Amino acid sequence: MRLEDIPNLNHLNSKNFFLLAGPCAIEGEEMALQIAEQIVKITNKLEIPYIFKGSFKKANRSRIDSFTGIGDEKALAILKKVSDTFNVPTVTDIHEVSDAAMAAKYVDVLQIPAFLVRQTDLVVAAAKTGKVVNLKKGQFMSPESMQHAAQKVLDSGNTQVMITDRGTMFGYQDMVVDFRGIPTMQQYAPTVLDVTHSLQQPNQSVGVTGGRPEMIGTIAKAGIAAGVDGLFIETHFDPANAKSDGANMLDLNKLEKLLSDLVAIRKVITTL
């Protein structure tokens, strides 16, 4: 995959990692624009290639009363407005074959959720839109097995594929990141580390996913040091009241300091 082929992706000559960041879910237009504006300001300052992330719907929920979205077309239109307003590409996840063509009208990157990355029909549908496809590594999959998911995209006539590691299940309610998987998956496609989902604590008895956001800096710094191509970070200006995944999101006010530290580490790595 060539980052140059992603529309409106800026700062490609900076030699920085690229960043997928934004809220877990699109809760409304005002919140999406507010978060995007702040991240764009930070990434422009630090010259980080940036893709705005927001789920147009949340299909994988623990409870039937969990927030799933504000309406598919409404949320997708907000993603398009973010892109048009700030001149940045956008990414959203899809869950059904019919989502692929619909979402492709609004966003630049289609993301396959970790639980669904073995679903051949879904991966092929995303690939055939011609959009960049971001494959989240299943929590139950080895890094080596992701070559087959990436190959499905390639065999569908689409060379625009990347892989995102989001941790591996460790028992029932915890995740671990095996940094050995980064160079392994880089053999197949550019590789991203999903920092915030790697710190999830799923399957809580209350039916709401927990997390360890205090470890975000640790995992992100380790990922950059390991040579990952990009980072994925979910962030919100009020994580405690976010409608989805608030327990493992980064407070937006802490993002600039973290990214500044990561850029400094990246500079050291690229001079070795």
UniProtKB/TrEMBL annotation:
Pathway: Carbohydrate biosynthesis; 3-deoxy-D-manno-octulosonate biosynthesis; 3-deoxy-D-manno-octulosonate from D-ribulose 5-phosphate: step 2/3; Bacterial outer membrane biogenesis; lipopolysaccharide biosynthesis
Record's subcellular location: Cytoplasm
Annotated ranges, domain DAHP synthetase I/KDSA: 15-263
Gene Ontology MF annotations: 3-deoxy-8-phosphooctulonate synthase activity
Keyword Cytoplasm in annotation: yes
Pfam families: DAHP_synth_1
SUPFAM superfamilies: Aldolase
Reactions listed under catalytic activity: D-arabinose 5-phosphate + phosphoenolpyruvate + H2O = 3-deoxy-alpha-D-manno-2-octulosonate-8-phosphate + phosphate
Cited Gene3D superfamilies: Aldolase class I (3.20.20.70)
Ranges that cross the membrane: none
Alphabetical UniProt keywords: Cytoplasm, Transferase
EC number(s) given by UniProt: 2.5.1.55
InterPro entries: Aldolase_TIM, DAHP1/KDSA, KDO8P_synthase
EC class of the enzyme, as a word: transferase
Family according to the record: Belongs to the KdsA family.
Xref: NCBIfam families: KDO8P_synth, PRK05198.1
Protein's UniProt name: 3-deoxy-8-phosphooctulonate synthase
Organism: Patiriisocius hiemis
Lineage: Bacteria, Pseudomonadati, Bacteroidota, Flavobacteriia, Flavobacteriales
